[in-house]
Amino acid sequence: MTAPLVEIREVSKRFTKRLDVAGKIAQRLGANVREETVHAVDQVSLAIQPGEVLGLVGESGCGKSTLGRVVAGIHAASDGHLFYQGKDVATLKGAEKRAATLAIQMIFQDPFASLNPRMRVEEIIGEAPRMHGIVSKAEQSDYVDDVMRKVGLDPSLKRRYAHQFSGGQRQRIGIARALAVKPKFLVCDEAIAALDVSIQAQVINLFMDLREELGLTYLFISHDLSVVEHIADRVAIMYLGRIVESATTEEIFSDPRHPYTKALLAEAPRLDQRRRAFEPIEGEIPSPLDPPPGCTFHPRCPAATADCRKTVPVLKAGRGGRETACLLEHLETA
Amino acid sequence: MTKVLEVSGLKTHFFTHAGVVKAVDGVDFSVSKGKVMGLVGESGSGKSITGFSILGLIDPPGRIVEGSIRFNGEEIANAPEDILKRLRGNRISMIFQDPMMTLNPVLRVDTQMIEAILAHEKISRQVAWERSRDALGLVGIPSPEERLQAYPHQLSGGMRQRVAIATAFLNKPDLIIADEPTTALDVTIQAQIIHEAQKLTRQTGTALIWITHDLAVVAGLADRISVMYAGRIVEQGDIDDVIDRPRHPYTVGLLGSVPTANRRGQRLFQIEGMTPNMLAMPRGCAFGPRCRARTEACAAPPPIADVDGRRLRCFNPQRNAEAVP
Fold first, then answer.
1. Do residues B173 and B165 make contact, with C-beta atoms less than 8 angstroms apart?
2. SS3 A214
3. How confident is the model over A235-256, as a mean pLDDT?
4. Looking at CB atoms within 10 Å, which of A276, B30, B81, B241 has the fewest?
5. Residues of A in contact with B200 (CB under 8 A)
C-alpha cells in the first residue's frame, strides 16, 4: 500500500458560542445562560490514497461540510492533525507549506455565493495562479483560456461576470478556479446538489474526465447516495460528527453493516422501485448541542440494546473485517 | 374512475417588459380519485406554474390566457375569487417546498390549524382543536398537544413540513398539489414524509399531484407521470411505461443521466446544452437544439399524440433507451 496523499488523524472541530456582554451580566445575575459548544466533528480519522475518490455521505448537520473545510485548510482543527504526503501540514514552513496548501482545493455547493460578483471570469480564474507565481502576467491570458477549455467553457466569454452564466456554467467556473493552481486533491462539497438533473450529469462527467486527465484525488461530499455510488471508490458514512461506517463502494452498497447505513440505503428513492411502501426509520438527527449518551444513533436504531445507551462505539474492524462504529457489529466478533 | 381534476389546453403566460414568457403553453392532464400523478421537469419547465394556475395563484404580469381547469366537473380557470377562496385549503390544498411559506411565523401552530378549519366550517373551536391534534398525530408527530402550542421556528424542517401536510389534509380535500415538498429535506426525513403522504392518500382517497425534479421519488410514489419541458408536457403515461420504456428523447436523456448502479464508474449519458431561454424559444420543437434524434421534421412544433399507450410530443419516438446515446 502506498502512502496516503491526504490523511487526517483524530480530527475534532468544536464551535463555541461565546457569551456577549449582556449574556455575561445575565449569568452574573443568576440567569441560566452558558457558553454552548457544538462538536461538529468528533475524532475523525480518514486516509485517502493518490488517485482515489472517497465519498463522504451524511445528512444535514452531521458535520460533513465542516470536515471538508478542515481538510481544505479553511477551518483549523480544534484537535488532531492533517497530513499531506505524510507530512503534518501544521509543522510545514515556507515553500513546502505553500505547496501543500495549494495542492488541496475546494469546490463549493452554491455556484451563486462562491464567486465574486464584481470580478470578471478571467480574474476569478487567473488571480490565484498569478499571485502564487504559477504564471507570469504575460502568460495569464493564455493560461486562463487553457483552464476554461479544460472545464468545457468557451474562453471568448472570459470578460463576462459570474451572473451572466447559468448555474451549471458557474459551477464550471468554480471548478476552473480550483484547477488553476494545479491542485492534486479536490474537496467537492455538495458540488452538484444545486444543479438540475441534466446539468448534474454534465458536471459529474466533467469530474470523472478531470480525474483521468489530471490524476486528481477527490473527497466527494454529498447527501446523494446514487451520485456517490457512481463516482466513489470508497465511502465513509457520517452521523452526528463521527464516521459510523467506512468501506469500499461495493461493500457499502451490497452489504451495509451499520444500522444507519442500512436505513439510508433502504430509504433512498430508486428508479427501479415502483409504488413502494416507504418504511422509514423514526425520529430525526439529534441536536449536536446535546447529543444522546452512548451511541448517538441509539434513539433511532431498531436494534439498540441497553449497552448502546451507555457505551460510545469506536470505529474499528468488526464482523468480516468491516469497519463500523456499532457495538452490535463488534459483539459478533468477540 | 372519477376524474377529480381535468386540465386541458392550459396556457399561463407572463407579460413582462422584455416580452411574453410562455411559462405554461398548452398543458393537458387529469387526475383520478386516490391516484398520484408525478409532474416532473427541470427548473423553468413550468411545473410549479401549472400547480399555481390550478389554485388561481398567478399574479400579474402573469395570467391564464387559455384553456380549462375542471375540478369535480366545475370550471375553475379564471373563476371569481370568492369561488376559489371556497376551494383553497378546503377542497384543494397545496404543500410548498418551503414550509415557512405555508406557516405564519408569528402564530402558534394551533392558531393556524384551527383557523384553516373554521374558515370553511361552522364548528366549535374545541372540535377544531381536537381535529388539529388528531391530524398532527396522523402525520407522525410525537406528543401533538405540545406541538400545537409551538411556534414554527421552534420546529425542525421535517416537523414543519409535517405540520404543513397535516394542515393540507385537515379538511379532507379532494386534491392536494405538492410542489417539491421533500426537496429541502434529508433522505430519512424525505422517506418519512412520503410515507405519511402515501398513507393519507390511501386512507382519504385524496388525489395527489406531486411536482418534483426527482425522477426516483416519482418512480417510487406515482401512478402516472407527466414530463414537462419548456412549458409543455412532452411525455405522459403510466409510471411503468414511461420509466421502463421512455419514448421521448428528453425523457430518455433524463433517465439516462440519473446515476444508477449498473453504470458505475462510467460516464453518464448527458443531454448537451441548457434549457432554452423562455423569451427566445427555438422554432419548432423546443427540445430540438439539444436532441440527438433531431430530423428535418423537428423544424415544426410536434403535436401531442397517442403513441404506445401514452401521450407523446415527438416526431421521432425512441424505440429503446439505448437508441439515443
1. no
2. helix
3. 93
4. B81
5. none
Do the beta carbons of residue B304 and residue B233 sit within 8 Å?
yes
Between A174-188, A268-282, A287-301, B136-150, the lowest mean confidence (pLDDT) is in A268-282
Which amino acid makes up residue A187? Answer: V
CB contact under 8 A, A198 and B42: yes
Name A37's Cβ contacts closer than 8 Å, sequence gap at least 6.
A14, A15, A16, A17, A289
Looking at the complex, does the CB of residue A210 fall below 8 Å from at least one CB of chain B? no
CA separation for the pair B223, B234 (Å, rounded): 17
Tell me: ipTM over 0.85.
Answer: no
Are A125 and A180 within 8 A, CB to CB? yes
**Could you tell me the CA-to-CA distances from B133 to A146, B11, B65, B99, B174 in Å, in that order?**
62, 40, 42, 19, 21
Average predicted confidence (pLDDT) for chain A: 88
What value does the mean pLDDT take over residues B211-215? 91
Q: What's the mean pLDDT in A234-257?
A: 93
Q: pLDDT digit string (tens) for B53-101?
A: 999 999 989 999 999 999 999 999 999 999 999 999 899 999 988 887 7
**Residue at B300: amino acid letter:** A
Interchain pair A270, B216: CB under 8 A? yes
CA distance to partner chain B, nearest, from residue A178 (Å)? 22
- Residue A334 is predicted with a pLDDT of 52
Q: Do A274 and B219 touch (CB under 8 A)?
A: yes
A253 contacts in B (CB within 8 Å)? 261
Instruction: Please give the average per-residue pLDDT across A23-49, as a whole number.
Output: 86
> Which residues partner with B38 through β-bridges?
B210, B225
User: Average pLDDT, stretch B264-283?
Assistant: 82
Could B263 and A230 be called an inter-chain contact, meaning their C-beta atoms sit closer than 8 Å?
Answer: yes
Among A287, A289, A286, A238, CA closest to A264? A238
Mode of pairing for the β-strands spanning A104-107 and A185-189: parallel
CB atoms within 10 A of CB B116: 21
